[in-house]
Amino acid sequence: MTEYRIDDLARASGVSVRNVRVYQDRGLLPPPRKVGRTGWYDEAHLSRLNLIGRMLDRGYTFATISELLTAAHYGLDVRDILDTDDPSDRWKAHWGRARLTLDDLRRKFGDQTTDDNISRSEDLGMIVRDGDEFTVPNPKLLEAAEILVDADIPLADLLDQTTAVRRDLSDVAARFVSVVADHYLAGEGEKLEVDESTVSEAAALVNKIRPLAHDAVNTLFAEAMEAEIAKALERAATQLDSGSSDSQAS
Q1: Which of 78, 133, 152, 193 reaches 20 to 30 Å from 234, CA-CA?
Q2: Which are the contacts of 43, defined by CB distance < 8 A and separation ≥ 6?
């Protein structure tokens, strides 16, 4: 099997090294096999780059290419994905149709496909056992886990973080709902006259703010991610500078 360093892959595909990295960052190109500090790409990466190039030439956006590639990866019906007008609904309508066998999971996660990790993934709702197969409620979440495991991050650590994030998100959701609930409904140990119209009004208001709250959380999360990434890069730069200074001193 032919393998390429990133420079060789760029030459073979006619894609710049910068764009190869862009496609990886956007999740369009799987990460390479790492040997030490060197990433090794194979024919599958070259084929994927050629496919991405053809799709870009036909006018597809990165977002659409990502959806189509993910749909193909998980065996979803691409025609049905494209038939949905609202991009946010495309995956919701088809998540339950993505199915994996135990062998599929082993190919994706290798020796980290342990009984404990499978059980924890089921508890978190990442996979749902259905006879000899598993349905995948959220293929994008599983794909993110696959990318991180390929980068040598233990699956057990990812499951720990997923558990913590689920707990944090429950707190965030409770805060948004409580803005309405605390105004319309009685708290624990309190008595408040509530009729059917009040409950209906409260429910309607919660549903009205739901998409706004979703957008607000997305925006705040993106800002927080940028800040944390900047901190991590600054920390890495400091360590590099420190290592360089130590080398010069010795």
Answers
A1: 152
A2: 1, 2
Cα torsion for 138, 204, 211, 174, to the nearest 10°? -70
Radius of gyration of the chain (CA): 23
Q: How far is CA 213 from CA 9, 92, 171, 175, in A?
A: 43, 19, 13, 10
Integer Cα distance of 95 and 135 in angstroms: 8
Q: Which residues contact 60 (CB under 8 A, 6 or more apart)?
A: 68
Query: Which pair of structure tokens corresponds to residue 96?
Result: 């339950």
| Mean pLDDT of the 220-235 span | 85
What is d(CA 126, CA 112) in angstroms, rounded to the nearest whole number? 15
The residue behind tokens 């997305």 is 218
Which of 66, 75, 80, 124 shows the shortest CA–CA distance to 101?
Answer: 75
Tens of pLDDT, residue by residue over 29-42, are 888 888 888 889 99
pLDDT for 23 beyond 80: yes
> CATH 1.10.1660.10: does it fit domain 1-60?
yes
| Domain spans in the chain, listed from the N-terminal domain onward | 1-60, 157-249
Average the pLDDT over 206-224 and give the result.
81
Distance, in Å, from the CA atom of 2 to the CA atom of 42, rounded to the nearest integer, reads 6
Cα–Cα distances in angstroms (integers) from residue 248 to residues 95, 242, 245, in the given order: 55, 10, 5
Q: Per residue in 147-164, pLDDT tens? A: 889 888 999 999 999 999
Strands 3-4 and 38-42, by their bridges, are: antiparallel
Amino acid in position 191: K
Please state, in angstroms and rounded to a whole number, the distance separating the CA atoms of residues 26 and 39. Answer: 17
Banded pLDDT at 146 (limits 50, 70, 90): confident
